[in-house]
Amino acid sequence: MSADRALREAARRVARSALDEDLAGYGDLTGRAFRAPGRARIEARRDGVLSGTFVFDEAARLVDPELRVTWARRDGVRFAGGDTLATLEGVMASLLALERTGLNLLSHLSGVATLTARFVAETVGTGARIAGTRKTTPGLRALEKRAIVDGGGLPHRFGLFDGAMIKDNHVAAAGGVSAAVTLVRAGAAHVHALEVEVDTLDQLDEALAAGAGIVLLDNMDTATVRAAVARVAGRALVEVSGGVHLERVRELAEAGVDVISVGALTTRAPWIDLGLDLEG
User: Fold this and answer.
1) Active-site pick, 135, 185, 226, 231
2) Is residue 4 predicted with pLDDT exceeding 90?
3) Considering only the top CATH level, what class is 3-119+269-278?
4) With contact defined as beta carbons under 8 Å apart, do 96 and 23 qualify?
5) Strand, coil or helix: what is 69?
6) What is the pLDDT of residue 106?
7) Domain ranges of the chain
8) Cα–Cα dist 103/56, whole Å
């Protein structure tokens, strides 16, 4: 299955679930009285980066296939407070039934894209890239990963199925870094790069000796990160995670790491305030 098709299917599934939650098979008991045709606009009430038009469109189709949504911005594009992001045309009952579900999804995903863009801006001029993590809202991972990309970041792993990463509990279960690498490598395809999370410089040495292609420096202070990058000396891709916040990103990027993975992109992204207003 292509990535685009998988994203469309995820968007359709999420939109259907969200609408079922709001309409519950009964429909909009208030809005259904308004059967005249109408127009509406989606307006930004603060600056941001747009994401989620694809799932908004899926929700609109599910509410009423006759609704017409015309976007003035595309995903990944910045907007300012007061900008009109889209215009909608259709029966007012359908516009009203779509409003909250559509805006919930659009506001959340635009918030993820906007926060990601702020982190990415801190890495300008360095070789570091910002990436997401698996700390995503259950059921929304594909959409949130797309929002991270819209903000200029990397999606990282989509799940346990698309990359082998040895973490602290794997090391504990195996009895050490080398033992964990041996166990995982025995069952992994040759095309899969192996990433190993390390907490100390001694574990880093063990991971490099075992042939890790990617090392993840977990919860290290910046001085230790610099020392680790020097010790790797280009033998592996270096990722850093844990304790990453906006004020610290620049110094981590300048320490020479390749990737900075940030759980906060999805766990702490504030919603972007958007409104859907009927036009008179």
Assistant:
1) 135
2) no
3) alpha beta
4) no
5) strand
6) 98
7) 3-119+269-278, 122-267
8) 8
This prediction has a pTM of 0.96
Q: Which of 240, 206, 195, 246 is nearest to 221 (CA)?
A: 240
Concatenating the DSSP letter of every residue in 212-259 gives: -SEEEEES--HHHHHHHHHHHTTSSEEEEESS--GGGHHHHHHTT-SE
Considering 57, 58, 218, 258, which one is annotated as catalytic?
A: 218
Active site residue 32: no
Specify the CATH number of the domain 122-267.
3.20.20.70
Q: Write out pLDDT tens, residues 70-103.
A: 999 999 999 999 999 999 999 999 999 999 999 9
Mean pLDDT, all residues of the chain: 95
The average pLDDT across 136-156 equals: 97
pLDDT in tens, 204-255: 999 999 999 999 999 999 999 999 999 999 999 999 999 999 999 999 999 9
Catalytic residue, candidates 39, 46, 167, 226? 167
Choose the catalytic residue: 150, 197, 206, 258.
197
How many Å apart are CA 174 and CA 171, to the nearest integer?
5
* 145 in catalytic set: no
Q: Which of 12, 39, 100, 231 is catalytic?
A: 100
Query: 256: closest CA among 198, 217, 219?
Result: 217
Sign, CA torsion 167/172/177/183? negative
* Helix or strand run (H / E) with residue 162: none
- What would the mean pLDDT of 189-203 be, rounded to a whole number? 85
Instruction: Give 131's strand partners.
Output: 154, 261
